[in-house]
Design goal:
There is one protein chain. By secondary structure, the chain is mostly helical. The protein has a single domain, classed as Arc Repressor Mutant, subunit A (Orthogonal Bundle), CATH 1.10.10. Helices cover 57% and strands 7% of the residues. The protein has six helices and three strands. It has helices spanning 11-15, 30-36, 40-51, 58-69, 78-99, 119-140, and strands at residues 56-57, 103-106, 111-114. Helix 3 packs across helix 6. The radius of gyration is 17 Å and the shape is globular. It starts with 10 loop residues before the first helix and ends with a helix. It holds the Pfam family DUF7344. Residues 1-24 are annotated as: Disordered. InterPro entries: DUF7344. This is DUF7344 domain-containing protein. Residues 35-112 form the DUF7344 domain.
Length: 141
């Protein structure tokens, strides 16, 4: 029997996963991937992190998500929506993504960056985006 010591990655390794050893990366089961993709807000947060060249501030992430979700015809102000987005990101979505090593969430500095498993979602989110745009075109015809 081989004993593998548990190794907690440093913050630097979590915010810059390319510097971590490929052996440290673990794959995610398909059920976990599906669970992580079952929220539009979580998918959009992943797209933002994937598109960023460096760790993104939670405040910036909240603003982008709230602006994308804002519907002027509903009685909710953009400020109220940003508060709701912030709470759901910080209490639900980011901890879940961090637990599965998809993002590195630095609560002290309020930064979100890529982690070892983020690359799994790169092509999946592109495909999902493409599927949605095709579906919306079909609905319009």
């Amino acid at each position: 029997m081989t004993i593998h010591p548990d190794r907690t990655p440093t913050l630097s390794e979590r915010l810059h996963p390319d510097s971590a050893s490929a052996l440290d990366r673990r794959s995610l089961p398909s059920e976990t991937i599906e669970r992580l993709l079952d929220s539009d807000r979580r998918c959009e947060a992943l797209r933002c992190v994937l598109a960023a060249d460096e760790p993104i501030a939670v405040r910036t992430l909240v603003a982008r998500l709230a602006d994308a979700e804002h519907d002027a015809t509903i009685g909710t102000t953009i400020h109220q929506l940003r508060q709701r987005v912030h709470v759901s990101l910080c209490r639900t979505h980011l901890p879940l993504l961090e637990e599965n090593d998809v993002v590195a969430y630095d609560r002290v500095r309020n930064l979100v960056g890529p982690a070892a498993n983020l690359s799994v979602f790169d092509s999946l989110l592109e495909t999902e985006s493409l599927d949605r745009s095709i579906a919306s075109r079909l609905d319009c015809e």
